[in-house]
Specification:
The protein is of the alpha+beta class and 182 residues long. 24% of the residues lie in helices and 43% in strands. It has an 11-stranded antiparallel sheet, covered by helices on one side. A hairpin with a 3-residue loop joins strand 7 and strand 8. Helix 1 runs antiparallel to helix 3.
């Protein structure tokens, strides 16, 4: 009988700790207006890095540490990837970033998704949206979003890891203006 009581208490404690982590993640994510960070991105084995600023909803500016001066910019409707020699323009809604940059949508999803523990440090939430599989990763201690993984309709795997995260900084809104084609 003592073992049964101990087991019930233990399982309810684990469940409440798990629930409180999810609640803390949702609360912290709710309070974010913008976030800046360093990133490392692996797309099908090709690794790139740089820094980004996200302003919710749906704006992002990333500068890559590459000799071709690659930048990625979304003004909330369109996405441009520009280098010294190329210029790509996409409707944001056709990319996985449409979902990742939509804080209100993500908050609704997080409330209804089951979380998965990834080792001692991370919580993962997984879902499919517009034929894109999306995994979000949060730090268990800071409750920060620390990365995402997407698999698009062509089965391209993109993993983005965030570090040096700063929340709610004063921003120059001009960075979200789409760059012009050369």
């Amino acid at each position: 009988m003592k073992i049964l009581i101990f087991l019930i208490i233990y399982l309810s404690t684990i469940s409440s700790v798990s629930a409180s982590i999810k609640e803390n993640i949702i609360k912290k994510f709710t309070d974010i207006e913008n976030v800046s960070f360093e990133f490392e991105q692996n797309i099908n084995g090709k690794i790139e890095n740089g820094n980004c600023v996200i302003e919710y909803p749906k704006k992002i500016f990333c500068r890559y540490n590459l000799s071709n001066k690659k930048v990625l910019v979304s003004n909330g409707k369109s996405l441009v990837i520009k280098t010294l020699s190329s210029y790509y323009f996409y409707p944001l809604e056709k990319t996985p970033l449409e979902t990742i940059l939509n804080k209100e949508y993500l908050l609704k999803k997080l409330k209804n998704l089951d979380q998965r523990d990834i080792g001692n440090d991370f919580i993962n939430f997984n879902f499919v949206e517009n034929e894109n599989e999306i995994n979000l990763f949060f730090d268990k201690k800071t409750f920060n979003l620390v990365g995402w993984q997407t698999v698009d309709i062509y089965q391209n795997v993109s993993i983005t890891y965030l570090s040096s995260i700063k929340r709610n900084q004063k921003l120059n809104k001009k960075i979200f203006k789409l760059p012009q084609q050369n």
